[in-house]
Amino acid sequence: MSPTNTLASATSPYLRQHADNPVHWQQWGPDALAMAAERDVPILLSVGYAACHWCHVMAHESFADGEVAAAMNADFVCIKVDREERPDIDAVYMNATVALTGQGGWPMTCFLTPDGRPFFCGTYYPKPQFLQLLAAVSETWRTRRADVEQAGERIAGELRSMSTGLPRGGPAVQAETCDNAVAALLADEDRANGGFGRAPKFPPSALLEALLRNHERTGTPTPLATVTRACDAMARGGLYDQLAGGFARYSVDSAWVVPHFEKMLYDNALLLRVYAHWARRTADPLARRVAGETAHFLLEELRRDAMLVSSLDADAAGREGLTYVWTPGQLREVLGEGDGRWAAELFDVTDTGTFEGGTSVLQLRADPDDTARFDAVRTVLRAARQTRPQPGRDDKVVTAWNGLAITALAEAAFALGQPELLSAAIECARAITSLHVVDGRLRRASLGGVVGESAAILEDHAALATGLLTLHQATGERAWLDAATALLDVALDHFADPDQPGRWFDVADDAEQLMLRPADPLDGATPSGASLMAEALQLAAHLASGERARRYAAAAESTLSSAAVLLTRAPRSAGHWLAVAESAVRGPIQIAVACEAPDSELLAAARALAPGGAIVVGGPADSAEFLLDRPRVDGRDAAYVCRGRTCDLPVTSVEDLAAALGPSV
After folding, report:
1. Residue 164 pLDDT grade (very low, low, confident, very high; cuts 50, 70, 90)
2. For the chain, first and last CA: distance in Å?
3. Where's the Spermatogenesis-associated protein 20-like TRX domain (predicted)?
4. What are residue 397's DSSP bridge partners?
5. Fold (topology level) of 7-162
6. Cβ contacts of 179-184, under 8 Å, gap ≥ 24
7. What percent of the chain lies above the pLDDT cut of 70?
8. Signed CA dihedral, 57, 16, 105, 320: sign only
9. Collapsed DSSP state (helix, strand, coil) of residue 247
10. Which residue from 131, 342, 554, 569 lies 20 to 30 Å from 296 (Cα-Cα)?
């Protein structure tokens, strides 16, 4: 039977977008690999994701084109992969692409031998070049097969040698390690524009969280000033949606003016956490507003069936940014002459424009004095924008990203005084743990209530465990602790390297075996699975009890020690590691509040004053492991502040608690 396009049955919206292509796309799996072996032809692997602009461009130019499809179908088995659903496959072949070309990106285009070894890799190709490439690869496969096989074996061997992870062992992370890493980061800041590096510029969420924690530990003002510059610049530029909240994935320029317009769940979850902590620490009005609007964006635009879906597209009706950009005339048409001119000046919308065709991305360089007019104008513009073509939405639910959002929503609930955010986090966690745990094992993703076959990876276990541990602290419910420790036990049994304590593989030992087993410790757009696991283990070590707690503590220590070399040599790629390390060198701080009422003033103060990464548990004495033998004092609520396994005497006033939680250096 001749192959046909099989993507209509996929659980990935990205794959379904290609179900009508004339290309005979296959989903990754043993059947597709067997087909390549039986036909004795190379595999053409195309990897992308639903919100990717250039993925759409290549799909329109090439994959929907009959001439290109005929060439692909004739000489290749064509496999389409959603990088968000199968990050393990993406990681393996992105390493190959970067090794062979010096750069990566999506769509990723790789040519493989039938057993999966890459021999030629690239990213986006316009149609003419792609047709030439297809012909050249096909000719080479027919006439120089031995050379292709040798190249594939050599590349596979080099990739395996590169995938050894961090060096074995490492010194314990000390305060000096953190301070040196922070000094290196501060020296690398773009002080003119905020953030780090040049265009394209991505939100440095994990780095900002780490700098906040360093400031809270040391009292040094410089890290906080760096956070303030970055957060202010991102929130006032085009990266932030000035009408409806939420951040785009990155800025194409160094000043945060023009975004690449897709909005990702993971970015907004990580940035919500940063802005909530910035608001908690400083009470800055911009921080509070942006954190609140970002949370609202998550719950209004990305929530489906209590869970959060993956992304909004960069494009609408085939044009990038169409939904979001404005001209002065459009503002006047919607708002009238007076408000239109006022809005154009306020949002920096000019006749010249900042984007294509003289349009402008809205910016807000300063909050206006007339807040009522500001709110009214934004309401009208939001309504008008809804009448435009809207970006596509990837409704796939990814476990790890929901875990990040659960943590951020719960922490933002206390930082902003918005308990409805905690309720949303609880509902999300209930839905995820109900749907994505199948026969005791976690799955990566679902679509429309149907869970996919892809096994969860390390980041899924770690991010969700951290979210559940955050809910355990927020609610006192034992079920969240039990669910989190079950995930951590699976991770320790199936993802930890038994031969090298502190090293983690990104895929389980009983998952599908690819060309190599990824083990990438570097933090990127999202924290690495290993650094997320360090955070989860650090929390669980102090919330669990007995042998389990000791096992978590040992794993947390070895995991963090393994990253000391990253913190020393490459702190820009170790933002989340640094955030976890900042907590670790303080103990981490744990606060047990013995109280009878859930609305205890002292418990609320503990949650407001606790530095990032601290552990806060409250309730009646002996109601949780951390509250054993910690009663109220003289009929008053009492807070017990501990660092590691050493605890101070209890305090009963907010003032004394604040003093106990001050900088430690």
Report:
1. low
2. 71
3. 4-159
4. 446
5. Glutaredoxin (3.40.30)
6. 179/214, 179/218, 180/567, 180/568, 181/210, 181/567, 181/568, 181/571, 181/574, 181/578, 181/581, 182/210, 182/211, 182/214, 182/223, 182/571, 182/578, 184/571
7. 98
8. positive
9. strand
10. 342
CA distance 418 to 296: 11
Rounded-to-integer distance, Cα 592 and Cα 643, Å? 11
Amino acid at 319: R
Mean pLDDT, rounded, for 230-257: 97
Report the topology of domain 175-314+394-584.
Answer: Glycosyltransferase (1.50.10)
Rg (CA), the chain: 26
Residue type, 15: L
Whole-number Å distance between alpha carbons of 194 and 617: 36
Average pLDDT score over the chain: 95
Cα dihedral across residues 36, 39, 42, 47: positive or negative: negative
Q: At what angle do helices 328-335 and 337-346 cross, to 10 degrees?
A: 140
How much is the pLDDT for 184?
97
pLDDT value of position 1: 44
Using pLDDT thresholds of 50, 70 and 90, give the confidence band for residue 665: low
Tokens encoding 239? 């990266």
Can you tell me which residue has the tokens 């991102």?
Answer: 234
Counting residues of the chain whose pLDDT is more than 90, the rounded percentage is 91
**Quick one: how far is CA 641 from the chain centroid?**
31
pTM above 0.90, yes or no: yes
List, in sequence order, every beta strand (DSSP E) within 288-421: 303-304, 307-308, 311-312, 315-316, 319-320, 393-394, 396-398
Tell me how far apart the alpha carbons of residues 326 and 318 are, in angstroms, rounded to a whole number: 17
Mean pLDDT of 367-394: 96
The pLDDT of 182-196, averaged and rounded, is 97
Strand stretches in 273-410, DSSP E? 303-304, 307-308, 311-312, 315-316, 319-320, 393-394, 396-398
Characterize the bridge pairing of strands 437-438 and 441-442.
antiparallel
DSSP code for 476:
-
CB atoms near residue 206 (< 10 Å):
26
Residue 97, strand partner residues = none
Per-residue pLDDT at 621 exceeds 90: no
Residue 24 scores a pLDDT above 90:
yes
Cis status of the peptide bond prior to 588, with omega within 30 of 0: yes
pLDDT greater than 80 at residue 268: yes
CB 478 within 8 A of CB 617: no
List of residues 6+ apart from 187 with CB closer than 8 A? none
211-233 mean pLDDT: 97
Distance of alpha carbon 42 from alpha carbon 111, whole angstroms: 7
In 367-489, beta strands by DSSP E: 393-394, 396-398, 437-438, 441-442, 445-447, 450-451
β-bridge pairing 307-308 and 303-304: antiparallel
Residue 239: which of 280, 286, 282, 271 has the closest Cα?
271
